[in-house]
Amino acid sequence: MDILTGLQYGAMAAGGGGLLYGMTITTLAAISVFARSATRRRDARTTLALLLRRHADHDAS
Q: Most exposed residue of 4, 32, 46, 51, measured as fewest CB within 10 angstroms of its CB?
């Protein structure tokens, strides 16, 4: 495998990871708004806050 192919696969993997992260955030945001159970909404909001806080900390460094 040459360097260019390795970079292409790396970029595809990074894009897939970003897409998965975005889908996770979107799903948790939807659950935190639309869930019927107050406990589920609270759990989804807590998880969402943790993910977004870690993401913001990662961008700052």
A: 4
